[in-house]
Amino acid sequence: MSDITNTIFGIYPVKEALASQVVFDKVFVQKGIDSDKIESLIKDLEKANVPVSIVPFEKLNRLTRGNHQGIVAVTSPVSFHSLEDVVEKALESDKAPLFLILDQITDVRNFGAILRTAECTGVNAVIIQKTGGAPVSGDTVKTSAGAIFKIPICKVEHIKDAIFYLQGSGITTVAATEKTNSEIYSLDLKIPLAIIMGSEGKGVSKSVLSLVDQRASLPLLGEINSLNVSVACGAFLYEVVRQRR
Q: pLDDT tens, 31-77?
């Protein structure tokens, strides 16, 4: 077995897991495989909004040594929460809500480190997109030091829809970006808030930046013009903590 321990492989095991409402993170299907059963299963997976990736045969062999029959599913070690439910619960609290949106962060260790910081700083929920981001895997669990089991994670179809929903619920959205002259320290962070952190390479996407209420940056005093996203996220969240204490 590989270091991914939460795998299910073979047509019927994957089919049974889907019927039992097991939470999948991603399903890998062998490129070029000719199987009516797999084609039918792919349609069922897509109806259930499970991400399906077509990959070379060698990729499946790296995931498992068993007879995978051309399909391997990676299951999630956690259950995901409804965005509507966590927002409603947060708004009922006597504390100002704090949400964290991750826009296409792909590095598993960054993801885990961010979850750990989010849990330590009292974030109500972390919101991620169903496709394009880092998987919720065994490595995520390890890097988060168990925080992944303590903080709600919401998987949404589109980040933009989540932003619209949060804004409609009276929550101000703030994007972390260097494309602004406004530093995080100049903003009022005591209000109901959602902070958006972007991907390691591109930052917050242009389409998301166009929707947010405010943009904020961190001062960079050295020659390097960017921070690791998990470090930047920690700086943002602890400024929220500082202002709210």
A: 999 999 999 999 999 888 788 999 999 989 888 877 899 999 988 87
Pick left, alpha or beta for residue 101 (phi over 0 → left; psi -120 to 50 → alpha; otherwise beta). beta
Q: Measure Cα distances from 156 to 31, 132, 148, 174 in Å.
A: 27, 12, 17, 18
198 has which bridge partners? 103
User: What phi and psi, each to the nearest 5 degrees, are found at residue 237?
Assistant: -65, -35
Report pTM. 0.79
Residue 172 pairs with which residues in a beta bridge? 193
Q: Please, where are the H alpha helices in the chain?
A: 11-19, 36-47, 57-63, 83-92, 108-120, 138-143, 159-168, 206-209, 229-244
d(CA 26, CA 163): 24
List the domains of the chain with CATH numbers.
7-75 (3.30.1330.30), 83-244 (3.40.1280.10)
Residue of 3, 1, 6, 52 whose CA lies nearest to 30: 52
Torsion angles phi and psi, residue 244, rounded to 5:
-85, -15
CA–CA separation, 11 and 109 (whole Å): 31
pLDDT tens string 88-105 = 999 999 999 999 999 989
Place of tokens 């100002």: 96
CA–CA distances in Å: residue 192 to residues 170, 188, 215: 7, 10, 15
Find the angle CA(50)-CA(145)-CA(151) to the nearest 5 degrees. 55
